[in-house]
Amino acid sequence: MKIRIVLASVAIAGTCSVTAIAISGMLSKEPVPLAIAKATLWTPDPLSAPRLADSVVSLPTAIQIDVARSIRPTPLVQPAFTETALPEIEPPLITWSREIAAGETLDALLANAGIAAPVRAEIALALGAEYDLRRLRPGHEITVISKVDGNPSRVQLSVDDGVRIETVFGQELVTRVLEPDPEMVTFAGEAVIESSVFAALDKAGIPARFAVDMAQMLGGTVDFRRELSGGETMRLLWREARDGNERIGQPELAFAALNLGETVYEIVWPDDGSGKATIYVDGEVLRVFAQPVEGARLSSVFGRRTHPVYGNVRMHTGVDFAAARGTPVNATAPGRVSFIGRRGGYGRVVEIAHGSDTLTRYAHLSEVPDTLEQGQRVMAGDMIGRVGATGTATGPNLHYEVLLNGRPTDPLSDDRLAEAAEREADDTVAIKRLTEARSLLAERLASDFAQTTTERL
C-alpha cells in the first residue's frame, strides 16, 4: 500500500515538471523572421540523368588492364657486391743532394750517398753517355733519389745553364737531358759609388760581377783608383735568362753609363753573343772592344803575386779569367793570327798580332777551331778557342796577355788595342745603338720606380 502511494507521488511530480518546462519554453520563444522561414523551405533542383557519349572511348593499349594476367609476387632485388681493390701506397722516397766541391769526383759523391760500387759504375756510364764527366766542376750538383731499401730510383746531375742530366732506374737504365726553356728578362739599376765599383753594385742589388766588365771596358780610359772620389753615379741595363723565378746562367750587361764629373762614359753591348762592346765618351764613339771570355770571373790581375803552383813570388804577365771548361774565347780586337800551338807552361796558345808592335796571347786553351789557321785575319769577337787547363794551371781559365814590342803590359789599362778596334766602328750605327740603349734604360728605370712606389703604398 505504501509503495503504491510513493510511486503515484513520483509520477505526479514528473508530470508537473514536464508541464512547467513546456509552458516556460512556449512563453520565452520569440517569433522566427520571415526571411529565415523562407530559407528553410528551399530545396535543390533534381539532378538530370547523365548523358552517355555517342562514340566508344577505348583505353590506350599501354594502360589496358589484363584481368586474365595472374598477379605474381615481385622478386626481391639482390644487391651486387663488387670487390674494389684499395689503391697502392707508394713507398716514401729519400732525397740526397750535394754540390760538387773542388777536387771531388762523381764516384766519391755517389759513394757518399751510400750507393754500392757496381751501381755507381752503371750511373757513371749512363750519365757519361750524355755529358762529358771531365767537364764537372765546383758548383755542379748531384741529386740521388732512393727508395727506403737504399736502392736508387733516380739520379740527376745539374750542370751549367740549368741543364740537367737524369738517369731513371727501371727494368733498364734510361738517361735523358732536361733543358730549360728560359725567357730573357731585362733589368735596370742605379748605384752610387762610395768606396768601390764592386761595393756600389753589391749595395744596390746589381750583380757585382759587372765590376769586372766595367774594369775591362774602361781600364785604359778611366783610372778607377784616382778618379773616383765618391758620389759618382752608375746606371746599368742587363739581361737574364729566367726559368720562372730561377736565373739560368750568368747575367749579361747590355748598357752601362758612368757619370764622372762632367764626363759621361757609356758602353753598349750587343745582344748577338759576340761580347763586342762599343765605348762612348759624351755621346761620341771612343772605341770598340771585345771581351776575351763572355761572363767570366776575373780571378787574377796583372802584377807580382804568389804563384798558385810553385808557391814563390813571381810576376804575373797577364790577367786570368776563371770560366767553365769549353767556354768560347774571343779575339779582343781585329788582327792576324801569328801563332797556334803550345808554349811550355802556357799550354795550348793562340797569338794575334794587331799591327807591328801589339800582340795578344790566349793561353791554357782546351782546343782551337779546326778552321783557324796561322796568318788568318780575325775580327773583334771572333771565336779563336775554348777555355781549358793545359800547361801549368790549377783549373780551367783563360790567361790573357797584351804584349807591346814583346813586353807584357796590363791588359786592363793599356789603350793600344783601341787604335786597332776603333777602325771597326760605324759611327752612324753605333750612335743609333746608343740612343736605343738610353731609351730602354730610362723606360726600365721608370717602370721599376713606379712598381717600387706602388709596393710601398
Automatic annotation (TrEMBL):
| Record organism | Pseudosulfitobacter pseudonitzschiae
Q: What's an example Gene Ontology biological process for this entry?
A: proteolysis
The residue ranges of the M23ase beta-sheet core domain are: 314-411
Concerning InterPro entries, the annotation shows: Cell_wall_metabolism_enzyme (IPR050570), Dup_hybrid_motif (IPR011055), M23ase_b-sheet_dom (IPR016047)
Q: Which UniProt keywords apply?
A: Hydrolase, Metal-binding, Metalloprotease, Protease, Zinc
Key word Acetylation present: no
Q: What is this protein called?
A: Peptidase M23
> Annotated Gene Ontology MF terms?
metal ion binding; metalloendopeptidase activity
Cofactor(s) in the UniProt record: Zn(2+)
Q: Does the keyword Protease apply?
A: yes
